């Protein structure tokens, strides 16, 4: 079985008899998209698949999870931020990636609404931390990249991609679920 990484530990009561909220978080499907690219054989394919991320006016962090045959399994929407940033919690995202059944590889992507395609130092640090957390779990971080509104992308190895001239992604292909964290259960502890 898999370790449940989303159970929030209950904090001890501050006062005798105090009631605490206990929650359980899970990933739920919030939508699907069609993947014309099966398999996803590298960063360029991941950029093509996730290029519409660049159309969002707020920065978003997502993870494209693929299996050992490079078939897309899930797009995890980790966070939605502001026009110039998005909070990323590496442990939470690494746990969500690892919880996808059949996960073998992952590509991290986020948009830069500013149009600046370069990854920041913070972007590199987050990617490195997630790679460390996934180390020896059977899931490998294959790439991390940004996408801009103009259809340009930049990956962590310095490669630049321009997918602006590509036709719209066809509506045929494999259905890939888009998921995000939501509360699964509420409860109380105490008398």
Shape: globular
Given as residue ranges, the uncertain stretches (5+ residues, pLDDT < 50) are 1-14
- Rounded to the nearest angstrom, the radius of gyration is 18 Å
- Write the H/E string, N to C: EHEEHEHEEEE
Number of strands: 8
Which strand order do you get reading across the main beta sheet? 1-8-3-2-4-5-6-7
* SSE class: alpha+beta
Termini gap: 33 Å
Describe the sheet with the most strands.
Answer: 8 strands, mixed
**Mean of residue pLDDT?**
81
DSSP summary: helix tally: 3
Share of helical residues: 10-25%
Question: How would you explain this protein's 3D organization?
Answer:
The protein has 191 residues and is of the alpha+beta class. It is built from three helices and eight strands. It has helices at residues 43-50, 90-98, 121-134; strands at 20-35, 60-66, 72-80, 105-112, 140-148, 152-155, 160-162, 174-189. Strands 1-8-3-2-4-5-6-7 form an eight-stranded mixed beta sheet, sandwiched between helices. Strand 6 and strand 7 (160-162) form a beta hairpin. Helix 2 (90-98) packs across helix 3. It is globular, with a radius of gyration of 18 Å.
Please sum up the structure shown.
This protein is of the alpha+beta class and 191 residues long. Helices cover 16% and strands 38% of the residues. Helix 2 crosses helix 3.
Chart the SSEs and their pairings.
Elements lengths: L19 E16 L7 H8 L9 E7 L5 E9 L9 H9 L6 E8 L8 H14 L5 E9 L3 E4 L4 E3 L11 E16 L2
Parallel strand pairs: 3-8, 4-5
Antiparallel strand pairs: 1-8, 2-3, 2-4, 5-6, 6-7
């Amino acid at each position: 079985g898999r370790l449940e990484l989303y159970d929030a530990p209950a904090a001890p009561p501050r006062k005798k008899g105090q009631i605490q909220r206990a929650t359980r978080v899970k990933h739920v499907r919030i939508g699907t998209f069609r993947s014309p690219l099966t398999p996803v054989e590298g960063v360029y394919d991941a950029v093509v698949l996730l290029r519409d991320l660049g159309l969002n006016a707020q920065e978003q962090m997502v993870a494209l999870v693929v299996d050992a045959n490079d078939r897309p399994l899930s797009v995890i929407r980790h966070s939605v931020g502001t026009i110039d940033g998005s909070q990323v919690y590496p442990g939470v995202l690494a746990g969500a990636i690892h919880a996808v059944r059949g996960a073998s590889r992952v590509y991290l992507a986020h948009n830069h609404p500013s149009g600046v395609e370069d990854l920041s130092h913070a972007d590199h640090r987050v990617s490195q931390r997630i790679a460390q957390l996934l180390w020896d779990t059977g899931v490998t971080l294959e790439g991390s990249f940004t996408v801009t509104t103009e259809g340009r992308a930049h990956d962590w190895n310095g490669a630049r991609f321009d997918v602006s001239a590509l036709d719209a992604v066809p509506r045929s292909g494999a259905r890939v679920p888009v998921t995000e964290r939501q509360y699964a259960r509420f409860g109380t502890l105490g008398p």
